[in-house]
UniProtKB/TrEMBL annotation:
The lineage of its organism: Bacteria, Bacillati, Chloroflexota, Anaerolineae, Anaerolineales. InterPro entries: ETF_a/b_N, Rossmann-like_a/b/a_fold. It holds the Pfam family ETF. It comes from the Bacteria. Residues 29-122 form the Electron transfer flavoprotein alpha/beta-subunit N-terminal domain. It comes from Flexilinea flocculi. This is Protein containing electron transfer flavoprotein domain.
């Protein structure tokens, strides 16, 4: 399989000041399928996230967005997540890139992951690109070769074809999309437990929902 990589950094982001020590977890975007279950690639990402987290003594966070998904989320700790952040609201049933971006921005601001892994699937690229451009962040596309340092900087030094990827470590969170079939999914541990966090709706989406309801009343 040929893996394409690129480094995407906005010029404004180079002047952004922050403390890397404020950013901790290795997070995974748990994109759902039409039937409300996780896409298969998410389990591969959890396996890689577990590896990175164990090397840096931090937690694995799984972020899920959908409607009526909290009960399903409780069964997913067995795949290596320490914390599962659930954004559960009827507004998210028909998820689009704008809603996903707003929610992930809320997650970044409030929970500050050091790394965020995304599956490189159809329909995912718009969401990820929107997220990293809005946050003036760095994004490594379709990466299969990376490790992590003790300070939680991602290390792409083994990818000799794309030396520019080293600069992703200057940013937080570090966003990486990963193609399927690269990493092994974890073996389920049925005794594993974790923390389920029901997240509030971002304020800008609450405003959007009120506007939608008002428009519907006018239309009726």
């Amino acid at each position: 399989m040929m893996i394409q990589s690129q480094m995407c950094v906005s010029s404004e982001s180079e002047n952004r000041k922050f403390s890397k020590t404020d950013y901790l977890d290795i997070a995974v975007y748990g994109r759902l399928q039409a039937d409300g279950t996780l896409q298969p690639i998410v389990f591969e990402l959890l396996g890689k996230a577990r590896e990175l987290a164990d090397q840096t003594s931090v937690k694995v966070s799984l972020v899920m967005i959908g409607s009526h998904i909290s009960r399903y989320a409780r069964d997913l700790f067995r795949y290596g997540a320490d914390r599962i952040f659930v954004y559960d609201d009827p507004l998210y049933e028909n998820l689009n890139s704008d809603i996903a971006r707003s929610i992930l921005e809320h997650f970044f601001e409030n929970y500050k992951p050091s790394v965020m892994l995304f599956g490189d699937n159809n329909g995912e690229s718009d969401t990820v690109e929107s997220v990293f451009r809005q946050n003036k962040a760095a994004f490594a596309c379709r990466q299969a070769i990376f490790s992590i340092r003790s300070n939680k900087d991602l290390d792409f030094s083994n990818d000799s074809q794309h030396p520019e990827l080293v600069h992703i470590s200057d940013f937080r969170p570090q966003l990486v999309s990963v193609p399927g079939g690269i990493f092994q999914p974890p073996v389920p541990n049925l005794s594993r437990r974790g923390e389920l966090i029901l997240c509030e709706q971002p304020s800008n989406l609450s405003h959007q929902e009120k506007n939608t309801t008002y428009k519907k009343l006018l239309d009726d």
